[in-house]
Amino acid sequence: MESKHGGGRLMIYRLMMWVGVLAVVVLLGAVFYFSWIPNPRLGELGWMPEGLGDVVDRFSRLRTGVPFVGLGLVTGFFLRRKRRPLGDWGLVFLFLVCVVFTAELGQINLPRRVLDWQDILWGIVGSAVGMIAMWKRPSTR
C-alpha cells in the first residue's frame, strides 16, 4: 500500500525528470543554434539585447564552455540521483564531447565561422566541470 506522501514524491520526481530533459534539450538546441549561425558576433543579432551580446562577445572563449557546464550539471544530477556507475558517467561525458565536436565541425562550411580547437577544449572543460561538480556534491540522503 502506498504511503500518504509517496504519490506526491513520485509526482515531484517525474516533474524533475521532465524539467531536466527539457533543460538538456534547450541547452543542446542553444549550443547548435549559436554554433551554426552565420555570424559569430552575438552582439550583432537583432533580437539579442545589445549590452548582453557585447559582453558575451568580449568573453567569446568562455561562452563556449558555459552551456556545457550546464549540460554537465544537469546530466550529472540525474546520474547521481539514479546512482549510476562510473562507466555511465564516462559514456555521458563522451556524448557531451561528441556534441562539442559536432557543433564545431558544423562550422566548416559556414563562411564567417571556423573550426576552433580552443572552443572544443572549452566545451570539454565545461562538461567536465559540470559533471565533476555533481559527482563531488555532498549527498543529501
TrEMBL record:
The keyword Membrane applies. It comes from the Bacteria. The chain crosses the membrane at residues 12-36, 62-79, 91-108, 120-135. The keyword Transmembrane helix applies. Keywords: Membrane, Transmembrane, Transmembrane helix. This is VanZ-like domain-containing protein. It comes from Luteolibacter algae.
